[in-house]
Amino acid sequence: MTDNLIEIKNLAFSYGTRPILNNVNMAMSRGKVIAVMGGSGSGKTTLLRLIGGEIKPSAGYVKVADQIVHQLSRGDLFKLRRKMGMLFQFGALFTDISVFDNVAFQIREHTNLPESMIRDLVLMKLQAVGLRGAYNLMPAELSGGMARRVALARSIALDPMFIMYDEPFTGLDPISLSVICNLIRRLTDALGMISIVVTHDVQVSLKIVDYVYFLADGVIAAQGTPQEVKNSVAPFVHQFVHGEEDGPVPFHYSAQSYQKDLELENSVA
Amino acid sequence: MLNRVVASIQAIGHRTIDNIWRLGVASRFFAWVLLKSTTSFLRFGLVIREIYFVGVLSLIIILVSGLFVGMVLGLQGYETLQKYGSESAVGTLVALSLVRELGPVMAALLFASRAGSAITAEIGLMKATDQLAAMGMMAVDPIARVVAPRFWAGVISMPLLAAMFSVMGVFGGYLVTVVFIGVDNGSFWSQMQNAVDFRYDIVNGVIKSCFFGVAVTAIAVFEGFDAPPTAEGVSGATTRTVVTSSLVILGLDFVLTSFMFRGVS
Hints:
The complex is a heterodimer. Chain A has helices spanning 44-51, 74-81, 99-110, 115-128, 144-155, 174-191, 202-206, 226-231, 235-241, 258-261, 265-268, and strands at residues 4-15, 18-29, 33-37, 59-64, 67-68, 84-87, 162-166, 194-199, 211-216, 219-224. Chain A is α/β, with parallel strands linked by helices. Chain A has 2 domains: 4-99 and 160-228, P-loop containing nucleotide triphosphate hydrolases (Rossmann fold, 3-Layer(aba) Sandwich), CATH 3.40.50.300; 233-269, no CATH class. In chain A, a hairpin with a 2-residue loop joins strand 1 and strand 2. In chain A, helix 3 (99-110) runs parallel beside helix 5. By secondary structure, chain B is an all-alpha fold. Chain B is 86% helix and 0% strand. Chain B has helices at residues 2-35, 38-42, 44-54, 59-81, 90-128, 131-137, 142-181, 185-195, 198-226, 231-260. The longest helix of chain B has 40 residues, at 142-181. The termini of chain B are far apart. Chains A and B meet through helix 2, strand 6 and helix 3 of A and helix 6 of B.
């Protein structure tokens, strides 16, 4: 048994003939916040789906708590998922039930605890994200930031070993963003779990993460601590961290010659 | 010209293969729903909750439509029968038309439009907003937790709604012919009692509506689950539910009728 709760080895995945991830290697241990960064379409969300066992890799494996995820039976995979948490981009709260019932959902589904104990547990989780007072609201009555905090409370309902966050900072105002950011760090430390944060919000996430992986075109283009990343001279990392318009990731989508598109070539000739 | 013909034949071939493929996927999905139905029966509260949404909330449209269909049947039946001096047989006409055909078919068509479309839209939107994926990641099977209870709620609700449609229809016929027009009350009910056979007419009507219930809700849950996770995808799936269900109800009705009412004298 290794110290790493999650181990990803030579992982590859493709949709048909289109490769998405290739030879990805990662190791994650408890108590760490890990950021996976990269542009749109770089394979970040696919990586989360592979860790969660939603899809199977074409090569390599994801090992969680010494179990190779894609080799598990459906029953065993569901057992493993009880120890995972997932925060979707916009929360994915169940819209037909209240905040309280959303957080209680997993506890009710997987345990036989009495309702009085469930109530205490739910209120504790909501207290941790600062929304105990909103327990009886419906998801439609919540702001985007509040919905994500409720979803965070729901994902920690059964004290998971790790939580995956899919773009948790998208579309948040600065206050909500800071709240979510600090919550991720605080909960990771308090629960001794792993947080895997898929994001392209560089400046915010570098404040709270322990380690960063940069994905580009399905491979790990760079990795390191936040300080190493900030000081990196690798062109891709430099462009990404400093938000430069042009670089290894070009500003222009590939196209035929501009003059040809504007039908100027013949007139010039 | 030849290329265009070849392209058309190819397009027809592709569409046929796609539809057969989709039928296979739907069949597998249906089998999966049946396999995962244990939760629905162990936690029957989940089904009861859905019966409220698909059954109870469909009552108004079913009862009002049944009443008017019965009233129109009574009016039209009286108009024709009185020419032959048989207006007292109008009760028989109304009751047989309703319990054998109009009750199950009309109730199923209304159910497909009211509840089938709602089931598809709800499941489709749950998929589009990642709620089904979130459920899966919480180790809760969305087919067992979301799809199967809705399916069984539809299957249970449909015969009850069809029965209520027929009851309201008979009442509507009574209202128009007996109360308003003045057909003899005793003849209306006694002729109906003599002509309508419990096993042959009523039970067959209930069996029909059970088939319709399975067909409509199976189509509705599949279309919702299979909907592309976009606004356009969900709206397309909802439309497909209503159109496909309506066609299947009418086709199935013909097949069932030809089996059930052979040799009617």
